[in-house]
Amino acid sequence: MEKKLLTLNVNGQDYELYINPKTLLVEAIRDHIGLTGTKRGCDTVSCGACTLMIDGMAIKSCSVLAVQAEGHQITTVEGLEVNGELAPIQKAFIDNGSYQCGFCAPGMIMSAQALLNESKSLTEREIKEGIEGNICRCTGYNSIVRAIDGAAKGKYTEAKS
Ligand code: FES
Ligand code: FES
User: pLDDT by residue (tens digit) across 65-116?
Assistant: First the structure.
């Protein structure tokens, strides 16, 4: 198939890519741009490891083509920090020991951040529903829920931009 030139805006920076139009967004991010924080788990839109944000909303990047993301703002886990300081949700994950393997954590953090973008007033049920598309095979969900709850309640400071 003929390759296509497209521009993806990732973490505030434009990347020009010359790729097959069938390239998945997760492939473009990892293999062409080189941002490997976004993980590739199941490829069947089940595990959530590939979750990133498009225009602030959580999206499983194995479920969209890279060409569909052109013209939108993509944020990966690498883009959450500001001036080298981690985002509150990242501090919350560290503080609560909410990651283990590091494979599911980036996608979980991106789903959590998208949830916080929608509302900072979250019930436990809303938090659980917000991350239900992300699978942690070690079932460490309680600490993840605690971390999101803490971040929602403003326990962790924003970095200054
Ligand atoms: S790799 Fe996308 S949901 Fe599993
Ligand atoms: S901590 Fe990643 S799968 Fe459980």
Answer: 999 999 999 999 999 999 999 999 999 999 999 877 888 999 999 999 999 9
Structure-block tokens of residue 124: 């436990």
Residue 31: count of CB within 10 angstroms of its CB? 14
Is this structure's pTM higher than 0.90? yes
CA dihedral (144, 150, 151, 157) positive or negative = negative
Closest C-alpha to ligand 1, atom 3: 45
Relative to the CA of 139, which ligand 2 atom is closest? Answer: 4
Nearest atom in ligand 2 to the alpha carbon of residue 102 is: 2
Q: How far is the CA of 134 from the centre of ligand 2 (A)?
A: 10
Q: How far is the CA of 155 from the centre of ligand 1 (A)?
A: 30
